[in-house]
Amino acid sequence: MSRNRNFNSAGVILTVALIACIADQWSKQLVITRLCNGDKLLHFCRHPELIPGLVNIWGTQNHHGAFGLFGSNGPLLLVLAVAVLVVFWFAFRDHAANSRLVSVAFGMIVGGAIGNMIDRVHFGYVVDFINFYGIWPNIFNIGDSCITVGVALLLISSFVSPRRHA
Fold first, then answer.
1. Alpha-carbon dihedral of residues 21, 60, 83, 22, nearest 10 degrees?
2. Residue 120 in contact with residue 152, Cβ under 8 Å?
3. pLDDT digit of tens for each residue in the chain (166 aa)?
4. Distance between CA atoms of 24 and 163, rounded to whole angstroms?
């Protein structure tokens, strides 16, 4: 597939990453200041259900890596996050140059990861607050959602073959 000269993959990646990171940080700040009364310790500050029987806001600290894995060593988790981003960049940079979907996916992953890395540096933990109780065992945040959706989009894009023009 030839590269579309009107398509700026770096611009798409940076724009999506910026939007994802801002949404993540803004939502966490809102939870801390408005719902947890400024309590940055977030001792499981719980609030009314958003969707009864399905979703509530439950501010908490996450000292672990993805899905509670990789221990609670903050500096190690930061290094792992950067390493994963570098591996993703080398694995998908050529695809991103030719695909808006891959560029958006990579931007979501980068923005979500940076949002969580900001938390680790600033607080020493990641602020999590979305609780799909009874359905999903972990409390998560907007950055985690962006990373998950971004990875899903990368998987989808890897199964979709580019259309060839004869």
1. 0
2. no
3. 445 556 799 999 999 999 999 999 999 999 888 877 776 666 667 677 888 888 988 888 887 766 555 666 667 778 888 888 898 888 878 888 889 999 999 999 999 999 999 998 998 889 999 998 878 888 899 999 999 999 999 999 888 756 544 4
4. 35
Cβ 113 vs Cβ 152: under 8 Å: no
Q: How far apart are alpha carbons 105 and 96 in whole angstroms?
A: 9
Catalytic residues: 128, 144
Which tokens sit at 42? Answer: 């977030």
Question: Whose CA is closest to 89, among 75, 107, 66?
Answer: 107
CA proximity to 144, closest of 102, 112, 114: 112
Give the contacts of 69 (CB within 8 A, at least 6 positions apart): none
CA-nearest of 1, 17, 5, 25 to 106 is 17
**pTM given for the model:** 0.84
d(C-alpha 29, C-alpha 129), whole Å: 11
Buried-state track 77-103, b at ≥16 Cβ within 10 A, e below 16 = beeebeeebeebeeebeebbeebeebb
DSSP code, position 125? S
